[in-house]
Task: structure prediction
Amino acid sequence: MVKTTLEQWQVLQAIVEAGGFAQAAEKLHRSQSAVSYAVARLQEQLSVALLRQEGRRMRLTAEGEVLLREAEELLRHADRLERRAGSLARGWEPELTVALDSLLPAEVVLAACGDFADHCHGTRLQLHEVVMSGADDALYQGKAALAVASRVPQGFLGDWLLDAEFIACAAPGHRLHASNGELDGERLKGEVQVVLRDSGIRQPRDEGWLGAHQRWTVSQPETGIAMVEAGLAFGWLARHRIRRQLADGSLKPLPLKSGAVRRASLYLVQAEPSSAGPACLYLADALRGAAAEWRSGCAQ
Result:
């Protein structure tokens, strides 16, 4: 059996932080004799001197510094364990699985997750990045309690989060930019178009203009952007993902007669709104708030 207790290490920690036995006793709402006894007993059990007097303050010995450093990690783990138990006792889900469409801006994801982390200490978060109908599959198969989807699947209700804008573009050195005047669909057909693969398998779908005779299909948006930037293809790319490239000129919008810009919406969908747990509801609100902040920033 373990000889020492977390309580003893907490008392030692309080003495070091407060500077003495009397101050620690006041901080812990205990008698000074109880504090002195706890540390004396701890040193006796370990056969190591942990504290030394330095003027009016009690400071750790070299051995005490090493041991308390490790004990503090145990105290942090114990605190997390108790907070998680409290969350579970209040009905917070032990784990929350969320499907997020890859179109969702990273700023929205990070802001919502940061808010969630500050409030939902006892819930593990499983984030699955999906493309197009991948969110539909996660909801239909019961694999996600919450999803951000490019459309609201049949049989579900959803709230609009934001609109994303796609721009037809290519690298400035691409031969499409060498053409005089505006481009039409016939001119695009002879070039390689990069498109994003649907991660869903139930009813996969294609979106966007697919008139090119040769298409390169990728699974990650970043891969498609890199291909277009390298001059290997053209494509419709999400504006919020290519702000830097548009600003520095490494990507250039195509002068299309029509269809140069298209928009897509993202929706927040709960699998079971009537029985959603507090962690699911909290993250849903966090995503709504983060999306509103993102929209406001884009409007400025």
Notes: DSSP finds ten helices and eleven strands in the chain. The first helix runs from residue 6 to 18.
